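Async update (no meeting this week)

Hi team, since we skipped the sync, here's where things stand on the single-chain job. The sequence we agreed to prioritize is pasted below, unchanged from the tracker. I ran it this morning and attached the output directly underneath so nobody has to dig for it. Comments welcome in thread, and please keep replies under the output.
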Amino acid sequence: MNDFASSSCHDRIADFKITQVQRDSHFDMGESHYHPYYEFYYLLSGQCRCFISHSIYRLFPGDLIMIPPSVLHRVLYETKRPAERINIFFSEDYLHWVSAASGPDLCVGLFSRSRLTIPSSSRPQLERLMTRLRLESESSDPYAPLMTKSLFSELLVEIARCQDVHQTPQFLDETSTAIQESARYIYEHYEEPVSLAAAAAVAHMNPTYFSKKFRETTGFGFKEYLTHIRLQNAAHLLCTTDTSITEIAGICGFSDGNYFGDAFRKHYGMSPRAYRLT
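Output:
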């Protein structure tokens, strides 16, 4: 995972960071991946598949993925040919600064969709802008922070303009569509006793085949994904409510309080009680 990757809603980052890296099929994101800040993921070259929350996206050069805070996601690189990407991470405070400086309309609807294909005519300008943004963010020049914010505002304007351009619908293959429907079912029914057989039935597959295809398509095992969704919702309730830990476990689909405590501790490195107090 990169320096900012985290599963905790208490983790924070510096206001802004931009990186440019290459990945191939040997790369594994490892643990579950979500973080309390925004992320833009722009594909420069190659191909990959991105699983966000409960949706699957196939990405090609010029595709931009926009990920809000605390949304589970994983990127899978399917070929040995390297895929080059630009990642931009920014905090809520950083986005507010831009909104205050440029007007609220700029940020309205910015995350209304997860995937945006940048028109070919706009890509050179957008990519030059990202390069300038990366260089400014790495500069020790005392004026660099202000220039970085200015360029970031310009980038958001370019993205907003591209959102007004008609987007060609993405069509997934039959298997990916079935797995996506099953992931949505798990995501929407995590508080219920969701079984492997029930999730497989949504995809019209037998449990063994479904289990294999779910991992291949999303990067998560069935039980792993279900547990992540339950734990993420439990962590949110711990941060935002006074509901008892026992009640939170039940609300989030854990029938065994001890199992919930063990799973939470393994995932977050502390007990639910300690997490609530931090």
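Quick observations from my side:
The longest helix spans residues 144-163.
The chain has two domains: 16-163, 174-277.
Reply here if anything looks off.
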